[in-house]
Amino acid sequence: VESSRRVSDEGRNAAAKQLSAVVLSEESNYVQSLLLREAAVALDATLRDSVASRIAPLLSVESPLPTPPKMLAPLFAPLTLPFQLMQATLELQDIDARDTKRLENLRILTDLASRAGGGISEGPGSF
Fold it and tell me: What is the per-residue pLDDT for 2?
């Protein structure tokens, strides 16, 4: 049993060395590009999810200014435009079904990594 563990560990170590050689290579390769792109997409979705959850109460806030008559709308534009821009920006921060799937995949990978690491992770700021 001991010898089979040693062989298994040697194979795992060899695979880890090969993987790290590809990922950490000085020359650009497909795996690096793919990992970099997916990391950027996951980070973007995570940040937008965090921002959207924090500012969700602001989405229901109506402009404190009444809607001006059409003839006077250009005169009130400097007052109403900031509220319209804020609302449009908040709508852009919403995550869609694709982002939701990415976040779910990221949570699964994080869970697998924490289990593989022996549950060493104590939370989001523990390095």
Answer: 54
- Tokens 């435009």, residue? 81
Residues in the chain: 127
Asked if residues 107 and 99 have their Cβ atoms less than 8 Å apart, the reply is no
Q: What is the C-alpha separation between 32 and 61, in angstroms, rounded? A: 44
In the three-class reduction of DSSP (H, G, I as helix; E, B as strand; rest coil), residue 27 is classed as coil
Asked if 76 and 88 touch (Cβ cutoff 8 Å), the reply is: no
CB atoms near residue 36 (< 10 Å):
11
Long-range pairs for 114-122 at CB < 8 Å and ≥24 separation?
Answer: none
In 50-64, which positions are buried (b, 16+ CB within 10 angstroms) versus exposed (e)? eebeeeeeeeeeeee
Lowest mean pLDDT of 25-34, 44-53, 59-68, 107-116, name the range.
59-68
CA distance 15 to 50: 36
Instruction: Name which of 42, 44, 40 is nearest 52 in CA terms.
Output: 44
